[in-house]
Amino acid sequence: MQIKDVQDDIAEELISHEALEGKIRRMAVKVSEDYEGKDPLLIAVLKGAANVMTTFSQAMTIPVEIDYMSLSTYGSGTRSAGKVTVRQDLSTDVAGRHVLIVEDIIDSGFTLDWLVNELKSRGAASVEIFAMLGKPARRKFDVPVKYKGFEIPDKFVVGYGLDYDERYRNLDSIAVLKPSVYQEVEKRATGSQTNQAE
Ligand code: 5GP
Ligand code: MG
Ligand code: MG
């Protein structure tokens, strides 16, 4: 799906499909050089990072193993907060493995801070992060992101895996929604709810 298909909901396109995939692929080639001979394990948090994982892993030039995890957090709508619980765990034992987390976006850093600590406590030999997007203005947890895609302003974005209320994940670029779209949904949701965090 492209911007033109949801034109009425979009305030602005932030990163085009071509710019996004060009950057992800270049980073994947660089990361492949760094992990040559290390048999890395790539981990993505569902659902948001599934798209970037596919593009990124296909552009790598070395064989890798891939696994997914599903997490949930408490909070509402456009902010993650509180407590992380594992909904669906990895099927891989990470002990002794060189792990690269492939992430859609780092916002406060809460989720990644939790995940890095979790993987280290399971005995990973190393844990690094590739994040397609980062919002430096909102960082609260000091998580070292070794491989960064794009830095974006403090705006809620959708597309390329990122949703709002489970929609827009299949948009092929990164865009900002019109405030009216999420105001409408938040009006319907009352109070606190359990969300699929990623
Ligand atoms: P953090 O724990 O770093 O605050 O947030 C991480 C998660 O919150 C992301 O993986 C993503 O699921 C969600 N998130 C943060 N910012 C945005 C955003 O601008 N758009 C969307 N769709 N999700 C976001
Ligand atoms: Mg989400
Ligand atoms: Mg994510």
Automatic annotation (TrEMBL):
One of its GO terms (molecular function) is hypoxanthine phosphoribosyltransferase activity. Residues 12-164 form the Phosphoribosyltransferase domain. It is found in: Cytoplasm. InterPro entries: HGPRT, Hxn_phspho_trans, PRTase-like, PRTase_dom. It catalyses: GMP + diphosphate = guanine + 5-phospho-alpha-D-ribose 1-diphosphate; IMP + diphosphate = hypoxanthine + 5-phospho-alpha-D-ribose 1-diphosphate. Pathway: Purine metabolism; GMP biosynthesis via salvage pathway; GMP from guanine: step 1/1; Purine metabolism; IMP biosynthesis via salvage pathway; IMP from hypoxanthine: step 1/1. One of its GO terms (cellular component) is cytosol. It comes from the Bacteria. Its main location: cytoplasm. Keywords: Cytoplasm, Glycosyltransferase, Magnesium, Metal-binding, Nucleotide-binding, Purine salvage, Transferase. NCBIfam families: HGPRTase. PANTHER family: HYPOXANTHINE PHOSPHORIBOSYLTRANSFERASE (PTHR43340:SF1), HYPOXANTHINE-GUANINE PHOSPHORIBOSYLTRANSFERASE (PTHR43340). This is Hypoxanthine phosphoribosyltransferase. The gene is hpt.
